[in-house]
Amino acid sequence: MERPGPSEVTGSDASGPDPQLAVTMGFTGFGKKARTFDLEAMFEQTRRTAVERSRKTLEAREKEEEMNREKELRRQNEDIEPTSSGSNVVRDCSKSSSRDTSSSESEESSGSSDDELIGPPLPLKMMKEPGNHIEEDIVGPLPPPLYEDAEDDDDDDDGDSEEEENPVQKIPDSHEITLKHGTKTVSALGLDPSGARLVTGGYDYDVKFWDFAGMDASFKAFRSLQPCECHQIKSLQYSNTGDMILVVSGSSQAKVIDRDGFEVMECIKGDQYIVDMANTKGHTAMLHTGSWHPKIKGEFMTCSNDATVRTWEVENPRKQRSVFKPRTVQGKKVIPTTCTYSRDGNLIAAACQNGSIQIWDRNLTVHPKFHYKQAHDPGTDTSCVTFSYDGNVLASRGGDDTLKLWDIRQFNKPLFSASGLPTMFPMTDCCFSPDDKLVVTGTSVQRGCGSGKLVFFERRTFQRVYEIDITDASVVRCLWHPKLNQIMVGTGNGLAKVYYDPNKSQRGAKLCVVKTQRKAKQAETLTQDYIITPHALPMFREPRQRSTRKQLEKDRLDPLKSHKPEPPVAGPGRGGRVGTHGGTLSSYIVKNIALDKTDDSNPREAILRHAKAAEDNPYWVSPAYSKTQPKTMFAQVESDDEETKNEPEWKKRKI
Hints:
Shape: elongated
Strand order of the largest sheet: 1-28-27-26
Distance between the termini: 148 Å
Number of helices: 14
CATH topology of the domain at 174-387 and 403-414 and 481-514: Methylamine Dehydrogenase, Chain H
Oligomer: single chain
Structural class: alpha+beta
CATH class of the domain at 174-387 and 403-414 and 481-514: Mainly Beta
Strand content: 15-25%
Largest sheet: 4 strands, antiparallel
CATH architecture of the domain at 174-387 and 403-414 and 481-514: 7 Propeller
């Protein structure tokens, strides 16, 4: 068989592929000519189609806008007075004429210069501007529409803008609910990102879970537990995914639990005898606070009295991820009292007992990126540092009764400072409003000396614009959730309050307020159900309780119940009770063999008493040695002398 040539393989002849070649190669279709595509022609066709569709869509939108404009003009002419309506009509007609002219000009220009337009059409407001010239090769989504001049704004719009500029009106404090945590200070608050569950912790070691969707008007927690046994709860925070909770207590080991309270991991405890804390695997002293990473799942941070800030991973509880060691200017150790992540998670900020605030890059643990030495008074515990939502401003709540704002871009002096804010708790915190226009913190009071307040400062001017009287105790924790627009407050008398506004807030406390309190079922109050049948048979009747006197008389006749108990053991005895023996072998030996049979006679006489019987009837000793005893070689010399008779044998032989 001849092999096909190159021309036959490519299938260049007009008759098509050789069927014999296809059979030879083993599959059909071999030798067909490959199909070619002209990409430039395809792109050109696609561009023309997109331009045509964009033009049609633009024309349809212009017609719809024109019809809506005419309807609005008619409605305004009917409502407004004749004089004012005439001026408005003239102005609107001039606007419409200018829009018509601009639209006609845009249509003319679109016929010439917009042939290359691809994508959705331009908004109408952009088409109205005469200076907006569209480039020929624009591809992709178009920029947002331009706003109209301030002359076209109405008086109502001016009122709305003034209302928006006043941030105090956005505070949701018209309604409140009270959650009873306990009798001691609520020192920790945590709300999941969706706002469905609230978790509270206090000085009573308890952590309680509250579900807004599952609660009714009774406001009862659905779960209570003590994850850290006898240690006060200092910080609670949900992870960015909402499936885990970081629990920081007075111990040296932080814990992570899930949404239902079951333990996920526990950090390892470090070796307290190692000098360099970077060489230990965990904290060696009491914890202060902790925080989750805002972006990376499973990473969190803790600070402790061992003068370190450590980052951890949930998957590796046996060793920390990295160690940050705050230092003074002289290089000495200093204890961090609080720490937090920046909003993007790239920075770690910590406030220390010497009054300094130190900020590190998350990936560089050696030297801090920013270090301000005297942010607050030395010796006071700064209780909170937090970043604003834009990430440029840092707020610090000091133990010197102050609240300060810092710009991390110019970290050389505070932007603002407010004093006269007493605090008596090491976890009094502060937070920003969801729109970043307000800064909120709480104040502490002595028992019976007034009420704790929630104070609001405007961020731009740092003026004290608003305050809320919470209760007759200190305000320790505050949390403003951005999605719910509700404020959670933890107090020093064991209460957790939720402030909301029915019009401005979403879900949260609004879900449980509308539910009525459930009534206890009647069957649940009875310990046992009784069916009363007065005419039942005697076998089905319940026995009546007889008097005690008759029962005692009946028991007296019973020999088992009336048996006199045995007296206690007294006096000398052996083997247990005196005069009584059991049926065991030891008791038998004690009774029959091991009894103490004292004999006061002479022991020599007691032995010689059996000498006569042994000599007359030798049974035990003499027969046994009769065959083995040697024969006597020397006869004993008997003497009348008693002394010679009693002398030893060796003396006699010597004589």
